[in-house]
Amino acid sequence: MFKIPFLDLPPLRGAAGTVRLPGSKSISNRVLLLAALSEGRTVVRDLLASDDTAVMLEALKALGCGVAQDGDTVSIVGLGGKLLAKQAQLFLGNAGTAMRPLTAALAVLAATQGGSFEVSGVARMHERPIGDLVDALRGLGCSIEDLGQPGYPPLRLRGPSTLALGTPVRVRGDVSSQFLTALLLALPLVAERDIRIEVIGELISKPYIEITLALLARFGIGVKREGWQAFVIPAGSRYRSPGEIFVEGDASSASYFVALGAIAAIDAPIRIEGVGSESLQGDVRFIEAAAAMGAVVQAGPNWLEVRRGAWPLKGLTLDCNHIPDAAMTLAVMALYADGPTTLTNIASWRVKETDRIAAMATELKKLGAQVDEGPDWIRVQPLRDWQAASIHTYDDHRVAMCFSLTAFNGLITDRAVSVRILEPHCVAKTFPDYFETLFGVVSVNAADVPVITIDGPTASGKGTLADEVGKALGFGVLDSGALYRVTGLAARRAGLDLDDGEAVAAIVPTLELSFRDGQVFLGKEDVSARLRAEATGLLASQVAVHPPVRRALHQLQLDFRRLPGLVADGRDMGTAIFPDADLKVFLTASAATRAERRYKQLISKGISANISGLREDLEARDERDKNRSASPLEPAQDAQMLDNSALTIEASVDQVLGWWQQRRPF
Ligand code: C5P
């Protein structure tokens, strides 16, 4: 996951390959609650690991359920409908799929068994309505106290109280279908007699009710229904665990990759595994909307394949009530269309993680798009004159994910721009590795991938600075010195004459080099510690003078230029390897400072050292690096000079990030 303040996406050019989707959020949280209410153990496989499921799992633990997690498998020992804890304070983050059904389940359990439970969430959760559900539960006889603004969490659910199960429970269906879902999940707990639920108003997001009903059936509850107007939970209903249950991939998450296929899968399709034609989730019908905009879609039971059909895409007018979440993706696809796209019947967008109609309109306009909105609709005009923009994501995972698709603007206009996604980690709500997954299937011109070079003499602090800058920007890091060190080490081990450049260069292609978790491996051996030794540094500077060795390592270094960007440190990063780098830094510090730093570094690792000896070694190495004819150590003409003798690491990092920001178009 990119846990950074912003992620910059350079222009992306195409897409192909296979993605495996994380588990569905809607199914994951329903299944967890159903398992918790059933008797005995349920093994839940392919569970989504995300913020929303994490708060649900914490809540279930607080209620006394046995929870054992092993990767994406969770084993739950349920309550069998009996409250083990009679008091709990449950923090449910911004997870509507946890807040609504837990409120209903705890309200009816407290009514019949006694207890006091508080449910709360983040500030935005306290702005998301729950009044219609509370009204329905109060009508039934539950005792619910508003702890904040009436109609919104936080709430206290208290019992015992008498439930009027003989009269129908009435709930509004036109604000959020989660209210009805919550009642359908909770009322089997108290179904001594038939319980009738009646929906007031037009029920929205019906496909989510289908998911609820299908999962209830898996847990032994056969709800009888009269269209979408009334639902009856039969007397004597009891939750029965299916023992084991698999969670489907998230169909709403699939929408980003379906759109990706429609926009950018030009030569080969994008294959999406985890959802398909047999999916329980209504959002899988997003493929029909994408096809109407021009995508070519093939579907199997558990997979989809999508490629570009019409280009530009075709603008359309669509009632999106059945695909409220995935429809946000259409608003971004609309930028690539041949005419306006109007999405209607999307009032529920206004009460989601953020006011999504307002959010989409505001951010699309930043890119230059013309957008109109109404209470329950949005219209987006095609965009050809794109502006680089910094996209605010409102702590809404879907805003972040769908705006990543704007990085393909270079496919529809000659003047491609970069896009900055603020707070990209908000995708953790449903898809923590979204950006990594995206980067795994997109193509980019290497020249578009941003590079920062940090060159300078030995022990100037390049490595530390590069690591910190890389961390701040989410960029990969190339420690080019390590490549020369490895080469020197391998040449010495092979008994080669280090002055024979051709012979040393010849071993480079045979090196089984890999980089994992910041460590360097030669074959299976972790050589990181050996590489850092002073003696290896001297070997490196010996082999580094030979042009054949430098040529042999050239492509290897270029291969590090990958999305979303690279920080490369060494001696010739800005002059020879990445002469087109967006920012070049030449780092210096006095020889005395550098010798002292190296001395402290060695002592802290328990290695004995002598400061004047170290200084002599440094100076000898610098001399050789500066005076060699092949790529000598010297600042690039356009390098920013940074003497960090008197600077802290933080100050150096801030300086480099400041220079970087000046070069960005945002
Ligand atoms: O940066 P580090 O101290 O690990 O580099 C070891 C040696 O490798 C340097 O002294 C230099 O001779 C060589 N080197 C180089 N070009 C680079 C990086 C390192 O010549 N880009």
Features:
666 residues, alpha/beta, four-stranded mixed β-sheet, 21% strand, binds cytidine-5'-monophosphate
Task: Give the helices and strands, then pairings.
Blueprint: E1 6-9, E2 14-15, E3 17-20, H1 25-37, E4 41-45, H2 51-62, E5 66-70, E6 73-77, E7 87-91, H3 96-113, E8 115-120, H4 131-140, E9 143-146, E10 155-159, E11 169-172, H5 178-186, E12 195-200, H6 206-218, E13 224-226, E14 230-233, E15 244-246, H7 251-264, E16 270-273, H8 286-292, E17 296-300, E18 303-307, E19 317-319, H9 327-333, E20 341-344, H10 356-366, E21 371-374, E22 377-380, E23 389-391, H11 397-403, E24 419-422, H12 434-439, E25 442-443, E26 451-455, H13 462-473, E27 476-479, H14 480-493, H15 501-507, E28 513-516, E29 519-522, E30 525-526, H16 528-532, H17 534-543, H18 547-558, E31 566-570, H19 573-577, E32 583-588, H20 591-604, H21 611-627, E33 640-643, H22 649-663
Parallel strand pairs: 3-16, 4-15, 7-8, 11-12, 19-20, 23-24, 26-31, 26-32, 27-31, 32-33
Antiparallel strand pairs: 1-24, 2-25, 4-6, 5-6, 8-10, 9-10, 12-14, 13-14, 16-18, 17-18, 20-22, 21-22, 28-29, 29-30
Helix pairs in contact: 1-2, 1-3, 1-6, 3-5, 5-6, 7-8, 7-9, 13-22, 14-17, 15-18, 17-21, 20-21
This protein binds cytidine-5'-monophosphate.
How is this structure best described in words?
A hairpin with an 8-residue loop joins β9 (143-146) and β10 (155-159). This protein has 666 residues and is an alpha/beta fold. α5 packs parallel to α6 and α15 packs parallel to α18. The longest helix is centred in the first third of the chain and has 18 residues, at 96-113. The protein is built from 22 helices and 33 strands.
